[in-house]
Amino acid sequence: MPQDKTAVVTGSTSGIGLAIARALAGAGANVVINGFGDKAEIEQIRSSMEAEHGVSVAYDGANMLKPQEIADMIRAAEERFGSVDILVNNAGIQHVSPVDEFPDDKWDEIIAINLSATFHATKAALPGMKRRGWGRIVNTASAHALVASPFKSAYVAAKHGIAGFTKSCALEVAQQKITVNAICPGYVWTPLVERQIPDTMKARGMTEDEVKRDVILAAQPTKEFVTPEQVAALAVFLCSDAAAQITGAMLSMDGGWTAA
């Protein structure tokens, strides 16, 4: 398990990223959380994680649109903790629009945050992992790294890019005790998803259960949401010695979505 290791988790002030950060702290890792939000709320999250798990937790507000800030975050973590042993590339955004109406700035932002930020963080973290002869890189992909949906061209393109990057990077470091994997969740029950439900109920004249089952979970055979804690548990496993021979893998956690 990742006890006495240091993990950097991008996009970890809420949702999946926060669940992963908490799970890694619970497993004994020092953690650097990252993301936007209310400063007081972030400090409460940081301090409560420290108090609950007896590890050191730092916050870094690096903007995932800015490569230099990403590199500086990795360097600062190495200076503070002595190493970055685990990198979880989780930050992501979404925008829904037909291709011919897709705003240029939204395309650029989604590619930058969902794909390019993973490259920049990985590039910064790998030299230290190589020197120490151990590392775990876990990329939060999506079922959309494996299949497509309409009106999500930038997101699907970025997540397919994560699949290719994960595999290529894994091959490069396969003999250096560094693993690189991607988790591909289906729809995860997060505040972002929850906030979509009232508007969809109103727009479609549906009940909450109907929206969940027939709209959001239409592609998920189990008709159940993935939970952030389930994704986090898989991330922690991938950081363990038991997962040493899992690398370059796209691990589906989607209620059977991509089995069809």
UniProtKB/TrEMBL annotation:
It is an enzyme of class 1 (oxidoreductase). GO terms for molecular function: 3-hydroxybutyrate dehydrogenase activity. The lineage of its organism: Bacteria, Pseudomonadati, Pseudomonadota, Alphaproteobacteria, Hyphomicrobiales. It comes from the Bacteria. Its EC number is 1.1.1.30. It holds the Pfam family adh_short. Keywords: Oxidoreductase. This is 3-hydroxybutyrate dehydrogenase. Belongs to the short-chain dehydrogenases/reductases (SDR) family. It comes from Hansschlegelia beijingensis.
